[in-house]
Specification:
There is one protein chain. This protein is of the alpha/beta class and 364 residues long. It is 40% helix and 23% strand. The protein has helices at 36-48, 129-143, 145-167, 178-214, 238-259, 280-283, 286-308, 325-334, and strands at residues 2-11, 14-20, 25-29, 67-75, 80-88, 93-97, 100-101, 114-117, 221-226, 270-275, 278-279, 313-317, 340-344, 354-359, 362-363. The chain is globular. It starts with a strand and ends with a strand.
Length: 364
Amino acid sequence: MRVDALTLDFWRNYPHLQLEFAPGVNVFYGQNAQGKTNLLEALAYLSSARSHRARYDRELITFGVDHGFAAARVWNGSREVELEARLARTGRRQLLANGVRLKTAAELAEHLRTVLFCPEDLFLVKAGGAERRRFFDQHICQLRPRYAVALAEYKRLHEHKTRILRDWPEHPDLLDTLDDFSLRMAQTGAVLIHYRAHFVKRLMEHAPPIHAQCSGGRERLELAYRTVSTVADPLAGSKAIFQGLLEHQQTHRQAELDSRMCLTGPHKDDLDIAIDGQSAKEYASQGQTRTAALALKLGARELFYRDAGQWPVLLLDDVLSELDARRRDFVLERIQGGQVFITCCEEGDFPSARRFHIQDGRAV
């Protein structure tokens, strides 16, 4: 997979931009706050319809303008595809492939898959479970379109149930619908848990060896998926997981009513990360944290390759400057074989790379 060209209109600080890329390494360099990250954000958006730093699409549109546009000419391994995202400040968007409107955002990943590594990912190990659930969602949505559909439905159901639990003392009739929402959340949540468990199982085949190489063989990375306690085997079929979720809901029903919060479901999931048997969240040093985060992202990249037979587009947002010389050299050696986009402040020494000097929303 590769991106041959990118077009932006009123995207962040770019009133208009057209660029063509090399199939190997592409470098965006320039001072801070010039728009380098915005380019990677656009590329990632065209693979998932999600931004890693914006909650709403309207934040991606140039201030003072009603509409924004991003398009990429992509080679997906078998044919050339033109992907488009048309955004409106009113909240309505259109996603297209070769001019045909897509029914779901998950269809973008059939044409373009990306793995983004940004400075915030260095806190993936130390932050709360929400960051690791976002790691699940960013990658599994691209690998499995059914997961993306189930995730969107689960979020919708969770919002409804949360409102019911919050408001039922003032409106007791809301409780008439509570059990129905709980049942549907268990059905959809079983799909999420199934895919997450299998994703972690496959990730364990790739991330620990990468971590061992990066640490010079001195440390051992361990991963474990943690979900609802009544789900005995997350790798089991969705029916067995569904029964475990129902059991958990029943035992927590009164606690949810008392607390007026949704206490049960995969929105509480987490990924336990350990280094040499100790919790990385609690005990890892800064260097160990960086190495573990690197291993997770590069492991996901390997998993994408094994799944599709071609490398996803790798987006490295100003992370090389955060790494020491040994880790930096390791990453540059490891990323051979696919298309890579790198942002940095200095032009740097990247052999055979195509370079773009980004200044004030322009490629100079």
